[in-house]
């Protein structure tokens, strides 16, 4: 039977806990839970809890945890998407869908041709995005929360490319390889980053710097894609290619 899911920001240390804030408001005033109502909690660290409402106050709810268990629905491959922020509502859409797919980390980057610059207001923006990934995990039954890093420059991102088994930079240059060929060449990659540029694309200097850092230029398809489309497409392709149950792209 379906049970509503709610997020615990801290792993519970006892069976009886009080929950307040936004999640308590959702339980009490949206779902209109009563004593005895059963719900599912998750802590964003891989644990899921079956709980029962035992007491209700105006702005908080007391829960009794009946069962806890580790539930891992994550992909075996750790995917990071580093993206130049698109305009308007497209950034929240990108974040929601990448979190829904199972991307583990999102890194907003500032490039030469970036149109949106949030460097002076990044904290407020990222806090709103973190709320999106929490709501997404609640809906899609992930027990982990997609991490959203602070915005960094493209140059700083490239300096850290060596931390990944397979660092990719999406572009439409004629020498860029297909994802199919790169997966074939790196079948055991477990930690992958893909850099998605702004609407005008990466500059030649940025692509050159990425290549010097051993990033692999990759072409996603025959069309020039929007930032959010490219992020969702490459995430889906990588998750499918490196899933344990398929041999596609081999």
Automatic annotation (TrEMBL):
Domain Ribosomal RNA small subunit methyltransferase E methyltransferase: residue ranges: 74-238
CDD domains: RsmE-like
Keyword terms of this UniProt record: Cytoplasm, Methyltransferase, rRNA processing, S-adenosyl-L-methionine, Transferase
Lineage: superkingdom: Bacteria
InterPro entries xrefs: Alpha/beta_knot_MTases, PUA-like_sf, RsmE, RsmE_MTase_dom, RsmE_PUA-like, tRNA_m1G_MTases_N
GO BP annotations listed: rRNA base methylation
First-listed, main subcellular location of the protein, grouped into a coarse class: cytoplasm
Gene Ontology MF terms in the entry: rRNA (uridine-N3-)-methyltransferase activity
Subcellular location: Cytoplasm
Substrates-to-products reaction catalysed: uridine(1498) in 16S rRNA + S-adenosyl-L-methionine = N(3)-methyluridine(1498) in 16S rRNA + S-adenosyl-L-homocysteine + H(+)
GO cellular component, one term: cytoplasm
EC number per UniProt: 2.1.1.193
Ranges for domain Ribosomal RNA small subunit methyltransferase E PUA-like: 19-65
PANTHER family: 16S RRNA (URACIL(1498)-N(3))-METHYLTRANSFERASE, RIBOSOMAL RNA SMALL SUBUNIT METHYLTRANSFERASE E
Function (record text): Specifically methylates the N3 position of the uracil ring of uridine 1498 (m3U1498) in 16S rRNA. Acts on the fully assembled 30S ribosomal subunit.
Protein name (database record): Ribosomal RNA small subunit methyltransferase E
Organism this protein belongs to: Candidatus Brocadia sapporoensis
